[in-house]
Specification:
CATH architecture of one domain in chain A: Orthogonal Bundle
Strand content of chain A: 15-25%
Order of helices and strands of chain A: EEHHHEEH
Helix content of chain A: 40-55%
Number of strands of chain A: 4
CATH superfamily of one domain in chain A: Winged helix-like DNA-binding domain superfamily/Winged helix DNA-binding domain
Oligomer: homodimer
Radius of gyration of chain A: 21 Å
Shape of chain A: elongated
Number of helices of chain A: 4
DNA sequence: CATCGTTATGTTGAGCAAAACATATCGCGC
DNA sequence: GCGCGATATGTTTTGCTCAACATAACGATG
């Protein structure tokens, strides 16, 4: 087996673009929706993800603006100070984009295994290949 | 059909990591190998890709260092000033990583189509869906 | 009507990767 | 041995994202 290749691992980033805007949706926003869905609060979601509230808020702003979709129902004031929940559209994005991402992840793993196999077998018969 | 979704397109980045090094190989280095293979020169390849020679050289340095593989045969001096060609290993990386990338690209497109379909059909029977 | 916790939003600073700039080295051919 | 064109490599500038900081608005509740 070709040494060195064992330590290597594939990584990928997936996102959606729309014209000028570099990334209208991707893993970060997906995680954010997920956290909001679990916590019922934008600030709590931000803290959970280890990002600033400022960034979380800005991300949502950009996503909703670019997609022209209302992802969240947000409310200020009240006993709890406020709350945020996903709209039906938001839930749909969370669910379906998650599936999309999972499918790509699966393909990357499979493609990587194929690649590994090809990189290794391509040297069969090269001599000096002492097995374990 | 849900409006807005037509303008959206999926993008992805794929790369290989090894421990501490963030990216030991990816699309940029693949393109670079490809251009070197076509031009027979590192500087010509850099110009072709619109990147500085400094960056191209550094990328090769990092890749060869992290992978512990000799990707290029480089020569200085001579009438032409110098030249650079891919080693057999270099050609193998070019070919096989290209296939890996192509497979992932295909999966992304397919996954995106599935996603699009799900995002659109999920609203059938919602009323107000006046066709073109 | 004062309090409290959350949403809302502008502003400034820090960190990092790429671009830009600057030289040095090599070696064949004339 | 001088020149040309490509490789080799250190240094400086910049540009962009995210973190950090600061402050306002909101509104149910006691």
């Amino acid at each position: 087996m070709k040494r060195g290749l064992e330590k290597i691992a594939p990584r990928f980033k997936l996102w959606l673009e729309s014209g000028k805007t570099a990334s209208v949706f991707g893993d970060g926003k997906w995680r954010l929706l997920n956290a909001i869905n679990q916590t019922g609060s934008l600030s709590a979601a931000a803290e959970k993800l280890g990002i600033s509230y400022r960034k979380a808020w800005g991300d949502i702003r950009n996503a909703e603006g670019a997609l022209k979709v209302k992802l969240l129902d947000r409310h200020r004031g009240g006993k709890e100070g406020g709350r945020t929940r996903l709209t039906e559209e938001g839930k749909r994005w969370l669910r379906e984009y998650g599936r999309f991402q999972a499918a790509v992840d699966k393909a990357v793993r499979a493609g990587y295994q194929d690649w590994l196999g090809r990189m290794q077998t391509a040297r069969e018969g090269t001599a000096g290949e002492k097995g374990a």
